[in-house]
Amino acid sequence: MSHLRRSEYQVDTIPLAMARDLIAAHHYAGGSSNTAVYRHGLFHVAEPMECLGVTLWLPPTQPAAASVADDWRGVLSLTRLVVVPGMPTNSASYLLGQSIKLIRADGRFHTLVTYADEGQGHTGAIYRATNWDYLGPMKGHPRWVDSAGRQVATKATTNRTYEQMSQLGYQRLPASRKHKFVMRFRQSLSPLP
């Protein structure tokens, strides 16, 4: 497969609707949040209206943020990363790297966190390739999927129970581990253990 030529592509901020459409079409989760702090899209310079990849960033929960930085309010999480099938081999790493540059230049956040899901066959290779620090595996949690195999969250305004998820027709899959990665733009006020 070909390699992406940086001079032929660009990464820009995109509307949330555009990001959500691409994620719904090509990401294993099948959807995303209704909001985001940053939404970046990958475009070929010859086709500037056709989005070929997306990064979506949100603040993580307070415990997740506090696990990687003292000042947890300055932590941001990569919640979705996707490129359309058939793109050159380094497309995702180029998109992610350019997205990180835009976030860093904005100056509002000092730490990024993300996870690679073993259950989806992800090893975190892209995060290693883009200079994230590996913090190790996390305890796995069961996942729920709909009849099309798309992931479904147990939280929908309130947390749904096992029985409620089953009654809605969702299938529970075995737990899979996630691997945690962090990128720090500057040091926390006091280092974490």
Q: What is the gist of this entry?
A:
With 193 residues, the protein is an alpha+beta fold. The chain has five helices and ten strands, in the order E-H-E-E-H-E-H-E-H-E-E-E-E-H-E.
Structure commentary:
The protein has a single domain, classed as Aminopeptidase (3-Layer(aba) Sandwich), CATH 3.40.630.30. It is 22% helix and 38% strand. The chain is built from five helices and ten strands, in the order E-H-E-E-H-E-H-E-H-E-E-E-E-H-E. The strands form two sheets. The chain has an eight-stranded mixed sheet with strand order 1-2-3-4-5-10-6-7, with helices on both faces. A two-stranded antiparallel ribbon has the order 8-9. A hairpin with a 2-residue loop joins strand 2 and strand 3. The longest helix is centred in the middle third of the chain and has 16 residues. It starts with 8 loop residues before the first strand and ends in a 9-residue tail after the last strand.
CATH homology superfamily name: Gcn5-related N-acetyltransferase (GNAT)
> How is the biggest beta sheet arranged?
8 strands, mixed
Spatial strand order of the main sheet: 1-2-3-4-5-10-6-7
Distance between the termini: 42 Å
What radius of gyration results from the CA coordinates?
17 Å
* Apparent shape: globular
Mean pLDDT: 87
- How many strands in all? 10
